[in-house]
């Protein structure tokens, strides 16, 4: 049954949003990347944007996808084509702030940190930033219509292959 | 003379036999070699890239950047002139400019508020004549003798270069006709900066100089590229150098081979099953009449100018000690791009940069070499594809430009 986001109380909406975000990062951190595109609607926008560009209103993003198909392609490329050092991600999300609900679209801002661990077992802060999410209800639950990860850590260590 | 005395204990020595290019791994890891490079390459008789004119379009615009490890400021003065100064106060050495970019009427050091104009001339010194008869600078103090350290500056096609040395050849001569033509081909009309990306690579900067002069690896390491026919070694292409062999130009033209996989049967590169769910990633426009779809122009010592499909970018190498460098990618389009064209450039931006589907591996390639040779100072590489000499090739199965880089490196380092 499709959720009516306007009908939810603030605590109920907060719960559903946090549940979605928790599942989203768990999917990445537990390396279930083939499921990652399923957190988005078909015509979703997903961008990972260096803060120095966002602050100047410049459009270049590290990752720039405007369809679920492009998200699938990113993961196929990661699995089949790209060469990179094996690593784990650990996302920490905080300050989940539901800013508005408008015409069925929930706008949420939150903070995140991604810790990265390579095969030598050393962990470093890899990427810190904020998520700007537009979330909608579908028959299959809440999904991201738009997810922007604006990252403060705009000097990327080595490379970025795994989504944020 | 073929030895760099790198420390009391070790020396980096080139093998006498250079019939095939061989490079001692010590040049990638030794601190003394790195220090000598700062003196003879980055602060010596070479032009280093410092930015795009479009990044400092208006009077008062500035950009903080680096030449090697030396912090410098690129700025535009009231007369429209481009100036590059060392970012260090003439008083006690502090950074004069602490912001990455912006617009100012003049520069002012925060430490003691010494102020400079946009050409780097000293404008004012607080308490120069003392306060109530106390203190003040000596009578011999002459404002004209305390400018910021000004570098020679010149630009071609909107790319700005600077050099520390009065003896460096004029920029156009230093670049040579091949490089100038390649710059003017891409920078043929006003450009618009679309944004920056920064990639911190844990390896020596010269491993990246090799990487960007190496068409041999391009179709073998970068599997994404190969699989979709953006680039194969069997495509029409060239690997050319300037007369001094310090700069390198690789070009390739998409759609000039038949896409047969036979030549790759012994490699892991060709995966005909891989289809894009959303092929709009590779939908582009033909924008150069010559049909060339890939240009990697590596300009000694710190610049790569690239065209990959419809992505246009400069990559600036900033050294961070012998064991690391930062790669600053600045992507641009043309001022007259329509909205759809800008959309194409941004979407194809997925191909390049630190998260680039065809470029991310270069950081990894640098790191796996650097990690492996850290204690192998006397061993040498074997750079032999194409014959092992610094020769131009009208194909892409060569390492000739890498040999050229090392030939010029040894010349400019006097080793």
Largest sheet of chain A: 6 strands, mixed
The DSSP helix count of chain B reads 9
Number of strands of chain A: 7
With strands numbered from the N-terminus, the spatial order across the biggest sheet of chain B is 13-19-18-17-16-15-14
Radius of gyration from the alpha-carbon trace of chain A, in angstroms: 16 Å
Mean pLDDT of chain B: 92
Structural class of chain A: alpha+beta
State the distance separating the first and last CA atoms of chain A. 29 Å
Sheet with the most strands, sense and barrel status of chain B: 7 strands, antiparallel
**β-strand amount of chain A:** over 45%
Largest interface by residue count? A-B, 37 and 39 residues
Low-confidence stretches of chain B: none
Number of E-state strands of chain B: 19
Order of helices and strands of chain B: EEHHEEEEEEEEEEHEHHHEEEEEEHHH
Q: Gap between N and C termini of chain B, in Å?
A: 6 Å
Spell out the helices and strands of chain A N to C.
HEHEHEEEEE
How large is the count of helical segments of chain A? Answer: 3
Q: Could you estimate the helical fraction of the residues of chain A in percent? A: 10-25%
Description:
The complex is a heterodimer of chains A (164) and B (415). Helix content of chain A is 23%, strand content 45%. Chain A has helices at residues 10-29, 51-54, 68-80; strands spanning 40-50, 63-65, 87-102, 105-118, 123-138, 141-151, 155-157. A six-stranded mixed sheet of chain A has the order 2-1-6-5-4-3. Chain A is globular, with a radius of gyration of 16 Å. Chain A starts with 9 loop residues before the first helix and ends in a 7-residue tail after the last strand. Chain B is α+β, with helices and mostly antiparallel strands and 415 residues long. Helix content of chain B is 21%, strand content 24%. Chain B has nine helices and 19 strands. In chain B, the strands form five sheets. Chain B has a seven-stranded antiparallel sheet with strand order 13-19-18-17-16-15-14, with helices on both faces. Chain B has a four-stranded antiparallel sheet with strand order 6-5-4-7, with no helix packed on it. In chain B, a hairpin with a 6-residue loop joins strand 8 and strand 9 (115-116). The longest helix of chain B is centred in the middle third of the chain and has 16 residues, at 171-186. Chain A binds chain B through residues 48, 50, 52-53, 56, 58-70, 72-74, 76-77, 80-85, 154-161, and chain B through 100, 193-202, 221, 223-224, 227, 271, 274, 276-278, 280-281, 326, 331, 342, 346-347, 349-350, 353-355, 357, 360-361, 363-365, 367.
């Amino acid at each position: 049954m499709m959720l009516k986001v306007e009908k939810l109380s603030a605590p109920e909406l907060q719960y559903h949003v946090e549940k979605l975000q928790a599942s989203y990062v768990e999917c990445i951190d537990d390396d279930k990347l083939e499921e990652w595109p399923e957190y988005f609607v078909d015509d979703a926008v997903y961008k990972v944007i260096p803060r120095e560009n966002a602050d100047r209103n410049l459009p270049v993003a590290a990752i720039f996808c405007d369809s679920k198909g492009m998200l699938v392609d990113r993961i196929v490329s990661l699995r089949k084509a790209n060469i990179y050092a094996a690593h784990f991600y650990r996302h920490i999300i905080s300050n989940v702030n539901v800013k508005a609900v408008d015409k069925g679209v929930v706008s949420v801002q939150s903070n995140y940190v991604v810790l990265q661990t390579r095969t030598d077992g050393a962990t470093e802060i890899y990427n810190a930033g904020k998520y700007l999410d537009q979330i909608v209800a579908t028959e299959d639950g809440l999904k991201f219509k738009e997810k922007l990860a604006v990252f403060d850590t705009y000097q990327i260590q080595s490379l970025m292959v795994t989504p944020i | 003379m073929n030895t760099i005395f790198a420390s009391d204990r070790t020396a980096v020595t080139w093998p006498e036999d250079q019939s095939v290019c061989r490079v001692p791994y010590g040049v990638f890891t030794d601190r003394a070699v790195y220090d000598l490079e700062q003196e003879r390459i980055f602060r010596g008789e070479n032009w280093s890239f410092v930015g795009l004119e479009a990044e400092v379009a208006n009077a008062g615009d500035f950009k903080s950047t680096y030449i090697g490890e030396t912090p410098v400021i690129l700025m535009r003065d009231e007369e429209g002139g481009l100036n590059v100064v060392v970012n260090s106060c003439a008083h006690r050495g502090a950074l004069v400019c602490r912001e990455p970019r912006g617009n100012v009427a003049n520069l002012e050091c925060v430490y003691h508020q010494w102020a400079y104009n946009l050409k780097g001339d000293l404008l004012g010194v607080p308490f120069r004549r003392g306060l109530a008869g106390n203190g003040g600078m000596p009578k011999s103090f002459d404002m004209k003798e305390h400018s910021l350290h000004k570098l020679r500056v010149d630009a071609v096609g909107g790319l700005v270069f600077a050099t520390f040395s009065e003896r460096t050849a004029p920029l156009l001569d230093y670049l040579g006709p091949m490089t100038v033509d390649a710059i003017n081909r891409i920078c043929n009309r006003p450009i618009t900066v679309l944004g920056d990306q920064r990639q911190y690579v844990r390896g020596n900067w010269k491993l990246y100089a090799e990487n960007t002069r190496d068409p041999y690896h391009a179709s073998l390491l970068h599997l994404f590229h190969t699989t979709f026919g953006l680039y194969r070694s069997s495509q029409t292409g060239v690997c050319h150098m300037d007369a001094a062999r310090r700069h390198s130009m690789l070009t390739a033209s998409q759609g000039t081979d038949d896409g047969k996989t036979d030549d790759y049967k012994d490699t892991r590169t060709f995966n005909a099953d891989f289809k894009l769910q959303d092929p709009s990633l590779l939908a582009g426009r033909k924008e150069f009449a010559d049909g060339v779809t890939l240009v990697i122009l590596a300009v000694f010592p710190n610049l790569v100018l690239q065209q990959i499909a419809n992505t246009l970018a400069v990559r600036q190498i900033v050294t961070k000690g012998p064991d690391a460098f930062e790669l600053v990618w600045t992507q641009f389009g043309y001022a007259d791009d329509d909205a759809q064209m800008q959309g194409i450039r941004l979407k194809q931006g997925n191909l390049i940069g630190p998260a680039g589907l065809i470029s991310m591996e270069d950081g990894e390639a640098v790191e796996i070499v650097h990690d492996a040779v850290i204690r192998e100072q006397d061993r040498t590489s074997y750079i032999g594809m194409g014959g092992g000499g610094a020769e131009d090739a009208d194909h892409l199965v060569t390492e000739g430009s890498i040999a050229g880089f090392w030939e010029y490196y040894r010349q400019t380092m006097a080793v």
